[in-house]
Task: structure prediction
Amino acid sequence: MHRLAIFASGSGTNAENIIRYFGNTPQVEVSCVCTNRADAYVIERAKKYDIPVLVFSRQEFYETEKVPDYLEEKKIDWIILAGFLWLIPANLIERFASRIVNIHPALLPKYGGKGMYGASVHKTVIENREKKSGITIHFVNNEYDKGNIIFQASCDIEPDDTPDTLATRIHALEYEHFPRIIEKIVTRSNE
Result:
């Protein structure tokens, strides 16, 4: 059994999609959801599936062992970032070396880094007259969006696209590919 911890900062649509995907998978289980916001809607989504939630402050995340200790207690094998906006601290990167995966709503290495998330990414991509955008699933290291790329999927940018219309197509790619790629990576790690 591979145990996942999903980290999310917002509404948690990707988190819920992953939870549903692994709901009847004997090999993989979403064991907990971790969030840095007590008002994040991802908490409600996790409750719906009886998944434990850990809420932590910036100080607890960066200056204590609260999060790593919780993950150890839950016997977590993999951390999945699904809309989690803080840089992962060294203590977690060390404990989960090559076992932290993130999804980014653009085709890295372009349009990554601090501040590049959600609508700001889509707005910048459109303003720069790119022809394509997409998703990048990558391993996490100690820099924003710089870990090794695992998978990318793209979509065309239409002449009349707005950040919202582009976001809709990007979300569709996330929902289609993220759980499947997680399953591949996680189950391959035992081979």
Notes: Residues 163-188 form the longest helix (26 residues). Residues 112 and 145 are 6 Å apart (CA to CA).
